[in-house]
Every structure is written in structure tokens, then in C-alpha cells.
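3.2 Worked example (two chains)
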Amino acid sequence: MWFSRSNSLPVSRSTRRWWFIVIVLMAVATVVFILTRPVQVPVAEPVPPLPMEPTPEASTKPAGRSTAAAPTSAPTLGGSDVPASPRTTDYRKLASAAAKTIYTWDTRTSSYSEVYSRVRGWWNVLPDGSNPLTVLVHEFEATGINAGTYASLAGQRARRTAAVQFLRCDFELAKVRERPAPWAGLHVCTVSLRVMDQTGSSRNIYTAPVSVMMNCPPADTAPRDHCVVVGFYAAANRIVY
């Protein structure tokens, strides 16, 4: 038993020595491995692309199709020959301007509703309602156009202009001498117009009469400083001669 113990001691020491050597070698190898390992440079992460700002709508439209700016003023109706309503007490001057307006339009620049609205702007309804707008519609259509004919004429690029030849007012007219105006300040003038109708391929010139009624001071229903149109007749059976 003692023999076995004494023989085992050298074996135990040699084993421990061997393990010590192994550990030392492994430590050296680890140090060498760490020292000789190439340094790895960290790779930068890819930078995400910046968000794109929305492209303005105008830049996506094809060239040559830019949107026109909205007009800042109303378009001229019926062409440059259309007179503006004069603010005057000269009823003869007002009658001439009104008659020209009634017989002036241009399908190339104005719709029928625009032409009608312009004429409607001259017609002032009296407080007693004796000159309703139904009369305006009838008398304006008596000039030879309505919504249907105007649309047809638009396809021919038609237009109409008028020039004053002469006018007679109040007691220069036989019917007024027979039946004077019911109140002071109410005047009537019959205007003779030289009218020219044109299309892209034709021209027609003729004479047309228009009777225009105006309300002026000192009438209680008139403005204090100017006259206004309160009606007109274009139908042949209503012209005042």
C-alpha cells in the first residue's frame, strides 16, 4: 500500500506539469492570435436617401400646356364698338348709346348669356313694375336673335355692329304728340340704325329702328343727376313714329 502511494506521486506531479505547459502554450497562442489578427475597420452603414420633396404640379405638366392665369377683369362683351352706358341727363345721347348696344354683338367673343346680360344691365325696372323683364326678352328677340339662333351663328363666327343714322325724340314723333308722356321726365326717342351683319363668308347691311324710353329728372322715380333707360321697342308693330 505504501509502495503504491509512493509510486503515484511522480505521476501526479508530471501530470500537473503537463497541464501547466498546455495552459501556458494556449495562453501564448491566444496572445499571438490577438496580436496578429488584422484590425477590422467598421463598415459605415449606408445612409438612407433623403426624402424627396413633392414635385410641384406645374413641373409635371407637358411643355406648352401651362395653365393660364385667371383674368382679373371681366372680358369685353360684344366687341370694342359696344358703348358704355353714359351717366348723363342728355337723353338723346343715352338713347343713341342704348340703341347701338341693343344691335351690337359678336359670337367670337361673347356668349348669348353675356350679350343678354349686357342689354339687361341697361333696363331699369320702374317701381310700379310697368316695364317687366318679360317685355325686355320679347323686344330683344325681335332684333332677330335668341339663344338658339345665336348658337347657330356662332358656328359661322357671326357678328353685328350698328351706327346711328338719325333720331327723333318726344314731340318730334307723331305718336307722342297724340299721346304725350304720362309724367315729366319720361322721354322717348326713335333711333334709326345702320346695321351690318357679318359672318366668315357674307355681309348684310340694312336699316333698323329702335324706340328707347328714358326716365330723367325731375321725375320722382328717376335718379337725381342722370337719366336711365326704362325700356325699348324693336318689334316693328311697336316702334314709335
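3.2.1 Second chain
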Amino acid sequence: MRRGKKAIIRTSKRSERVIVMVLRAKLLTTFACVTTLLSVMPAVAQPVCSPDLAVFPEIDLSVNVEIADNNAERAQGLMNRESLAEDSGMLFIFEQPRETSFWMKNTLIPLDIVFMDETGTIRHVHPNAIPMDLTPIPGAAPGDPDPERLMVLEVAGGEAQRMGLKPGIAMAHPRLDQSQAAQPCQ
């Protein structure tokens, strides 16, 4: 009878070894599949960019924009317009980051002015700028350690809040240096 018990114990240990080997093989196969999937999937999907769109991937928003990228276009801005369509605006682009301020001379409608740094990250939002007001609107909040701005987005008054535009949200746009962009384009 003693021999039978030893045979059962040996069989049990042998079975345990086989089970452990099978489990290890399945685990290694699963790990290999996951590793393969991760290697072919992008870490973060990059937004598809277009010059006439300001894309804010974090809040799933695209704003149709007119570009103002020279002195004459920037000086004209949205002056003398009586309306501005929902989800549209004007994107002011400077040659390099700089301290900037805006005014509302000859601007007939209230505007939200969204100031962004060289990474495309919103640093300051000035809501509901008053039509025709000549008071300078600074591109940086008081105490901002880096007051230089590369781009400024103007949208209709009240739209920035409705859209979810606030400091810290990043824009994707092809005119940003993609190596510095917080949200690079695809």
C-alpha cells in the first residue's frame, strides 16, 4: 500500500509541473501578444491638422479660423464685422513669441480673446472684450512668469467658455513648431 501512495504523490507532483509549464507558456504567449499590440499602436493619437482649423484634442473641439499672419491682417483683425459664426474665429500668428496686447478699435461685436504660448497651450483668456473699447487687453495674466505669446484666437463673446477653452488646454495647428507643440499634428 505504501508504494501506491508514493506513486500517487509522484504523479501529483508531475501533474503540477506540467500545469505550471502550460501556464507559463500561456502567460508568455499573452505577454508576446500584448507587446506586439503596444508596439503597433501609437502612444497618443495625434490630431489631423489643417491651416483653417484650430484643433483642441483634449476637449474634442475644432474651430474654423481665418489666419492673420502679417501686420496688415493683424491690424485689421475682426474690425467692422457685425457677426461671427459659431465655432469660428480668427487666429493671429506672430513670427516669434512676444509680449502682446489687443484692443477693440472698430470692432462691433464682443469677443473672447484666447492667448497661447509657443507650444499652443492657452495661457490666458480675456472674456467678452467690449466693442469699440481702446483699452489695451494684455496677453498675460498679472504675475505670469512667461508673458510671451505666439498665437491669439478671437472668437465671439461667450464662446470660449461654451467651448471649454481655458488656460492649460493645448491647440494643435500646423503653424506651430511641431517639435515644441504640446499637441503635435499628425
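3.3 Remarks
The helical segments are 2-40, 71-76, 159-163.
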